[in-house]
């Protein structure tokens, strides 16, 4: 399976970390599948400071928001691309592609800066429009996700 080039980051002049360039960071076949159904894969990516790139950490299949929250680290940030089967009030069904930034309270400030400084570029590159942030993994529930998605109708 071919992967697209990984995003590289470098220290910026003000000392924070940001992405120098950013190409899609998950296997293209995974992204195609995620956009077509809610069963997955749901990629979880992290910043690998030593290798200076964003890497695919894990892909989850057929996982609910409640199950996903148990897989996320409680004290380290992560980015997750999650497709969810959303049933609208009028009965229509859609599969929105959500970018979830898990930035737990209590993680190292350096990590928070690396992830927060990289989030917008990753979202733009992946062309995602449903962008959410959680500060504790307990926030990630089906009710929370439905509430967030109801804004987009």
From TrEMBL:
Source organism of the structure: Leptonychotes weddellii (Weddell seal)
InterPro entries: ADF-H, ADF-H/Gelsolin-like_dom_sf, GMF
UniProt record similarity statement: Belongs to the actin-binding proteins ADF family. GMF subfamily.
UniProt cross-references to PANTHER family, sorted A to Z: GLIA MATURATION FACTOR GAMMA, GLIAL FACTOR NATURATION FACTOR
Residues annotated as domain ADF-H: 16-150
Protein name: Glia maturation factor gamma isoform X1
Nucleus is among the record's keywords: yes
SMART domains xrefs: ADF (SM00102)
Keywords: Cytoplasm, Nucleus
Gene: GMFG
């Amino acid at each position: 399976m071919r992967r697209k080039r990984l995003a590289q980051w470098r220290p910026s002049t003000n000392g924070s970390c940001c992405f120098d360039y950013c190409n899609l960071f998950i296997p293209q076949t995974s992204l195609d599948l995620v956009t077509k159904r809610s069963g997955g894969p749901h990629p979880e990516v992290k910043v690998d400071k030593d290798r200076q790139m964003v890497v695919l950490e894990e892909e989850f299949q057929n996982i609910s928001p409640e199950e996903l929250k148990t897989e996320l680290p409680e004290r380290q940030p992560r980015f997750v691309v999650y497709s969810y089967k959303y049933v609208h009030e009028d009965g229509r069904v859609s599969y929105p592609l959500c970018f979830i930034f898990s930035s737990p309270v209590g993680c190292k400030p350096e990590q928070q800066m690396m992830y927060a400084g990289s989030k917008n570029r990753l979202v733009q590159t992946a062309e995602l429009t449903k962008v959410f942030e959680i500060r504790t993994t307990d926030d990630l529930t089906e009710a929370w996700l439905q509430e967030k998605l109801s804004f987009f109708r």
